[in-house]
Amino acid sequence: MDDSELLTAAVPLFDSYIETVVLVSSDTTTDISVLRPYVTEASLEEARQVIQRLHARGQRMDGRVEVERTVLQEKSPQAGTFTLLICEDLSDMRVVDDQGEDVTPSSRSSSSTVQVSFTGWPDHLRIDRNVKWTGASVC
């Protein structure tokens, strides 16, 4: 389980996942199951809850998240799992309401570190967990 191989596989998967989350959040008719190729069932349920909360407030995501930096936090070759700390550039991502007005909190930083756990290496790589990192930023 070479570190560069992990990053080569994980970053495009994470990018595709985030793009799809933004798509699902922007259209209440899109079935959340379109995220299934990227995530485990537990992670799919977490994403469903986040998107439902946005929709309940009449909000959606608009824009793009860029991966600025990744740090391998841990890996378990025997289990086929690994965890990355990912610095996300949020400067082009907005939260908008039903009228298209930007309601992004002014206090939100332009970058954020998330902890993303992957499983299924190497054959069926999926995101198992994606949470805001509360430790030292890698941005």
Give an overview of the whole structure:
The structure is a single chain. This protein has 139 residues and is α+β, with helices and mostly antiparallel strands. The chain has one domain (3-132): Nuclear Transport Factor 2, Chain: A. Helices cover 29% and strands 37% of the residues. It is built from 2 helices and 4 strands, in the order ααββββ. The chain has helices at 3-26, 41-56; strands at 59-76, 81-97, 111-119, 126-132. A 4-stranded antiparallel β-sheet has the order 1-2-3-4, covered by helices on one side. The longest helix has 24 residues, at 3-26. The chain is globular, with a radius of gyration of 15 Å. The two termini are 25 Å apart. The relative contact order is 0.20.
Q: How do the helices and strands line up, and which of them pair or pack?
A:
Blueprint: H1 3-26, H2 41-56, E1 59-76, E2 81-97, E3 111-119, E4 126-132
Antiparallel strand pairs: 1-2, 2-3, 3-4
| First and last CA, distance | 25 Å
Order of helices and strands: HHEEEE
Number of domains: 1
The class by helix and strand makeup works out as alpha+beta
In DSSP terms, counting alpha (H) and pi (I) runs of 4 or more, how many helices? 2
Strand fraction equals 35-45%
Query: What is the CATH topology classification name?
Result: Nuclear Transport Factor 2, Chain: A
According to DSSP, the number of beta strands is 4
Shape estimate:
globular
> Which CATH first-tier class would you pick?
Alpha Beta
Instruction: Describe the largest sheet.
Output: 4 strands, antiparallel
Radius of gyration: 15 Å
- Low-confidence region ranges: none
Tell me the CATH architecture. Answer: Roll
Please tell me the overall pLDDT. Answer: 95
As laid out across the biggest beta sheet, the strand order is: 1-2-3-4
| Fraction of helical residues | 25-40%
